[in-house]
Amino acid sequence: MRHPVLKMEGISKEFPGVKALSDVSFELYPGEVHALMGENGAGKSTLMKILSGVYSPTQGTIRLKGKEVTFGNPLDAQRQGVSIIHQEFNLFSNLTAAENIFIDRPEMVGRFRRIQWSKMYDEAQRLVDSIGGGEIDVRQEVRHLGVHSQQVIEIAKALSFQADVLIMDEPSAALPENEVKKMFDVVNRLRAQGVAIVYVSHRMKEIFEIADKVTVLRDGAKIDTRGIEEVTEQSLIQMMVGKEVGQLYPVREQKHDQEVVLKAEQLSLDSAHNVSFELRKGEILGLFGVPGSGTHTIAERLFGLRRGTGEIIIHGTAVKINSPSQAKAKKIAYVPPDRHRQGIIKPMSIRQNLSIPMLPQLSKYTVLDEARIKEMSKEYMEKLRIKAPSDGQSVDFLSGGNQQKVVIGKWLAANPDILILEEPTRGVDVGAKAEIYNIIHQLAQEGLSILLISSEMPEVIGLSDRILVLYKGTIVHEFAHGEADQEQLLQRASHPLSEGGCL
Ligand SMILES: Nc1ncnc2c1ncn2[C@@H]1O[C@H](COP(=O)(O)OP(=O)(O)OP(=O)(O)O)[C@@H](O)[C@H]1O
Ligand SMILES: [Mg+2]
After folding, report:
1. pLDDT tens-digit profile of 15-59?
2. Where does the ABC transporter domain start and stop, copy by copy (predicted)?
3. How many CB atoms are closer than 10 A to CB 276?
4. What is the pLDDT of residues 428-451, one digit of tens each?
5. Cα of 20 to ligand 1 centre, how many Å?
6. Do the Cβ atoms of 281 and 257 come closer than 8 Å?
7. Cα 138 to ligand 1 centroid, rounded to whole Å
8. pLDDT per residue over 384-393, tens digit each?
């Protein structure tokens, strides 16, 4: 009989005011990909942080290869064979890839305390090659690498310690669809080498593609572990949420106004060339393209984060938007794809974060209207089901998906006319996704105009009234309401001129 490489038993973890885990057991076998699922705040990351030495459990034991272990810190866990790739990357962007992999490692220091650079580069390149990252030059600084390459560096870093157990916490959340495949190749290679992998993700499709087993957590307790062939999408949702989840996408009837709220004329900068479109009042306009197609650039241009040529016309008047504050003054709001760089201020509380964009309206003379701020933050916490003991909780302590909800809440509360949403439900669980979609839909009905940029095709198709497809910085196709399916959308986004797709 095969023995588990890892056995966690009776694990509980309490934070002030939060019982994150209660009496959870979890087993892992060599060469298996084990999915860990559950709603936002269910305790997945906490369990994995305990397994990787970030936190110590309040109660419970961990056995690795039959022996009881305790991990003093993450390095200690790595030395004993457990490595983790966190939900948020932990790379130093101005160090090289090789330095990131072997940072602070005594084996790379030679005589007279000199770093053995060539040994480090060779070893790093070998590791990166072994997981299929041959095209990456490890002498490059990390900031020059794409997201998938950065992830390969994270994995290489984790593997540089002979890992028996590799934990991947939402590894695909930051990856575009076409790069997820490459990551799966890496995972399959590792599985074949006998590494046990814990795979945390909210994306159902991936779970069925890559996992051998799945364990579901709900409210800090383990619901069950099953073979992947024993479950269906519906039964998994039922296990995670504890009830049936209704329809994910609201039914959109196209009855927005004809009034044009925003007109982009011949916008050019960087990867985008002469992009023109109109956004009408109450419309949800999808903007779809593969990474580098220019969708992100356009969003940043409209929000004043970047400058370029062409004209932005709002309510019929040409305006200059050269900074986010000018954009905000024109009642444009932007939910960025990368919540950590641009979305939230982590040490501040939920309430403070939610109220930032509204401060001008929420202060009388120079005094803050605390009562209104409280009321508003309570409203959005409820609307978005942000899970926390109170709105005074620091955002740092929220689960990843709940942080994303704060970013969205913050911009919704600002009461904009035009809302640019980029990857709005990244890392958000199924139940909360349905909530967010409903809110987006309702806001559009109330007259908000929304530009939706997302790499999740079902989301773009399910929500948009029209979809514009960008390819290499140019709009190559427009789908009317109800016209697009995933296959066509992807085809237009990757080979716009094939099969009668000429303009
Ligand atoms: N350091 C901390 N201090 C206080 N509370 C915390 C801390 N870390 C996590 N929590 C709380 O513990 C609970 C479980 O969080 P965890 O991050 O494990 O959720 P998760 O399942 O990973 O969710 P997600 O899918 O959103 O990433 C949440 O209620 C969270 O707010
Ligand atoms: Mg998490």
Report:
1. 988 899 999 999 999 999 999 999 989 999 999 999 999 999 999
2. 6-244, 255-497
3. 13
4. 888 788 888 888 898 899 899 999
5. 7
6. yes
7. 34
8. 888 888 999 9
Domain 6-241 in this protein, CATH class: alpha beta
Largest CA distance in the chain: 74
Which residue CA neighbors atom 1 of ligand 1 most closely? 397
Closest CA to 41 of 83, 87, 74: 87
Contact 290, 494 (CB under 8 A): yes
Tell me whether the CATH fold assigned to 6-241 matches the one assigned to 260-494. Answer: yes
| Ligand closest to CA 37 | 1
Q: Give the CB-side neighbour count of residue 295, counting CA atoms within 13 A.
A: 27
- Determine the residue type at 126: R
E strands within 201-305? 213-218, 221-227, 260-269, 272-280, 284-288
DSSP for 161-228 reads T--SEEEEESTTTTS-HHHHHHHHHHHHHHHHTT-EEEEE-S-HHHHHHH-SEEEEEETTEEEEEEEG
Query: Is 451:460 a contact under the CB 8 Å cutoff?
Result: no
Asked whether the beta carbons of 345 and 410 are under 8 A apart, the reply is no
Where are any strands of DSSP class E within 3-157? 6-15, 18-28, 33-37, 59-64, 67-69, 82-85
Sequence spans of domains, the chain: 6-241, 260-494
Q: Whose CA is nearest to atom 22 of ligand 1?
A: 45
CA distances from 131 to 171, 199, 209 (A): 15, 17, 19
- Token pair of 469 as six digits: 């497809």
Cα–Cα distances in Å, from 344 out to 94, 278, 401, 413?
A: 23, 30, 13, 14
Partner residues linked to 419 by β-bridges: 333, 450
- Name the residue with tokens 């303009």: 503
Distance of CA 41 from the midpoint of ligand 2 (Å):
7
- Which residues form the pocket of ligand 1, taking CB atoms under 6 Å from any ligand atom? 15, 18, 20, 38, 40-46, 387-388, 397-402, 429
- CATH pick for 260-494 out of 3.40.50.800, 3.30.420.10, 3.40.50.300, 3.30.420.60: 3.40.50.300
